[in-house]
Amino acid sequence: MALAIFNRSSSTSPSGGLLSRVPLWVLRFLQFVFAITVIGLYAQDLNHQRTVNKYSESRWGYATAVGTIGAVSSLLLLWPALAMFAWAWDFVVFILFIALFGLFASMFVHGKNNSSKRMKNAVWIDLINALLWLVTALYGLGLFFTRGRRSTYTGRATV
Fold it and tell me: Which of 42, 124, 148, 151 could form a disulfide with 10 if both were Cys (CB 3.0 to 4.6 A apart)?
């Protein structure tokens, strides 16, 4: 009886109840933490370029914008009303982070640029963040196609 809240059926919760939401909450928290880390790592260079009155490169602006989109999205997607179609937005943010990873990996990992350890770490943080968004997209896609299915003939029974 005490565990009844963990086993709520899909008719009362589109995301499958509390127990299936806990892993998603953990992933969203990790997405938020890594997105804030991305903002901090790339915004340092933007701030440095601003203080020396140097033209700020759009790459660092893009990185900070993607980090901000990721942080805000991870918080907004915790809202249960958005859970049903969150997987589509997760794929969009995944593509943004993969583009970010590709952009900076070509500069700092494979490039002949004698770069700082901080920027090499930032590239791997981008990849981790992209993979987190891919995992939540696939998890949400799985929930979308398996939860709330009804029988063909009457539509009353859950399959």
Answer: 148
